[in-house]
Amino acid sequence: MSTNLQELLDSNKQWAANTEAREPGFFSRLLEQQTPQYLWIGCADSRVPANDLVNLLPGELFVHRNVANVVVHSDLNCLSVMQFAVDALKVKHIIVVGHSNCGGVKAALLDARVGLVDNWLRHVQDVRNHHHEWLDQLQPEQRVNALCELNVLEQARNACQTTVVQDAWARGQEVVVHGWVYGLHNGLLEDLAITAAAADEVAPAFQTALRAVKRRYEQARFSQLSSEAS
Fold it and tell me: Which segments does the entry list as coiled coil (predicted)?
């Protein structure tokens, strides 16, 4: 790779030319307005490119990413993105997206010391600590992905509890919060069924989704134990 990153600039020129050839006037139209219907809150992992995973063009998906797709009420960066998306762009869907084998989640699970990010991952460790009794019952190889999914549920609930979303719901604005997980092993997104469109839907949606996650991992654990015993 060159020191001036010319290969990336060349790739950009090719992408722009291909895009304009495929859809003449695309960039002129894009310049005039930004009207995405979706806000994606995902992990910063380079293997999880938001637009590509859902096959959306620039301008169709508003994106915020951080390590381990965390939504906390003290993170003004995330909250500012959410407020602009909801209040200015009028997005209708907020999707919190985690992914399997997440390095940040794994570090939080194992108390691995990485550096400054350890302080950020305390939020994921809080999720681990809250669910530690159940996680400890799983096979060791199941725990990382199980915590990835639990983290999505908790962060989606946090998104619902922000002043941004609560205020939108209070004034009757249509905003639906979702929680998804992406499988690095198969390229597929899975809806974890924590879906809320009003304040009174948050708690039951969370509990239903939590039961579903636990049931799925427990069934997998029992199947594995039965297979090993036979």
Answer: none
